[in-house]
Amino acid sequence: MTPETLADGTILLDATNAVTLDAVREAQTGLAEWRSRGHDTVHVVGHIANTTLEELDALGRRTVRLNIGHFVVVGGSARVVHLAAEQEGSWDGESLPCSDESIAYDEVSRMRGDSVVVLVTSSTEYDMAGLVARLKGES
């Protein structure tokens, strides 16, 4: 996962190849390191294949505990991740459920700028390469 600085100063971490829950967690830990260095952080997560509801719940709660700044959850099947983050109790509106990639792009676009790090993860069954391309300006 090589950081790429976009034209507006946003740092993009493309982990759309993080197709397992363990790989998503690893990428998320890397994002938390950026947060600890003073960056605002955004994790965009799509559907993660072969996961249980309990595992998705744990991922949402972990996001809060890692102090990730914003959480954009894409697709109905990933909604449990959003609900878990919201139920963790220490957040108020930092987790945003989005029905599709286009809405997620709009939400992330509002957060972009210098010192913002955006991590995009998804599984091969819910490929978000299109979102990454749009963020890069490659529509």
Strand-helix topology:
Blueprint: E1 4-5, E2 11-15, H1 21-36, E3 40-45, H2 53-65, E4 70-74, H3 79-87, E5 95-98, H4 101-111, E6 116-121, H5 129-136
Parallel strand pairs: 2-6, 3-4, 3-6, 4-5
Antiparallel strand pairs: 1-2
Describe the structure.
The chain has helices at 21-36, 53-65, 79-87, 101-111, 129-136, and strands spanning 4-5, 11-15, 40-45, 70-74, 95-98, 116-121. It has 139 residues and is α/β, with parallel strands linked by helices. The protein has a single domain (4-136), classed as Protein-Tyrosine Phosphatase, Chain A (Alpha-Beta Complex), CATH 3.90.190. A six-stranded mixed sheet has the order 1-2-6-3-4-5, sandwiched between helices. α2 (53-65) packs across α3 and α4 runs parallel beside α5 (129-136). The longest helix is centred in the first third of the chain and has 16 residues, at 21-36.
